[in-house]
Amino acid sequence: MQRFCFALDLVDDPELIREYENHHSPSNDWPEVTKNDIDAGIINLQIYRTGNRMFMIMDTDDDFTFEKKAALDAMIPKVQEWEKLMWKYQVPLPWAKEGEKWVLMDQIFQSGAKKAK
C-alpha cells in the first residue's frame, strides 16, 4: 500500500464551503467518479477541513501511479465534469503549478513503532 497526502484551499466563503461539503456528502456521491478512483487503485480517500484549508489522505494499492490516474480521468466525461465543478470552490495553493489543484505534501515526521519507508 502507498499513502499520499495533499493540501488545497477553498474559496474563503462560508456558503461556498457549505456547498462544497454538500457535494461530498454520501447522498451526493457521483458513482462514476468513485468507480474511476477505485479503478485507478485508490483504496481509501479521506478529506479533512479547517477553515478554508483542506487536507486529503489517499491510500492506494502498490500499482497506483499518478500517470495511470490522469489517463483514466481523461477518459471519463463525468470525472471531467466533476473536476470542472470543483474549480468553483477550490483555490490552488500559492506554490501550486499551473493547473494543479491538490498539492502533494512531503512527510517530515512520523512517530510510533512503524516508520514510513
From TrEMBL:
Coiled-coil segments: none
Domain of life: Bacteria
The protein's name in its UniProt record: L-rhamnose mutarotase
Molecular function as annotated in GO: racemase and epimerase activity, acting on carbohydrates and derivatives
Pfam families in alphabetical order: rhaM (PF05336)
Species the sequence originates in: Adhaeribacter swui
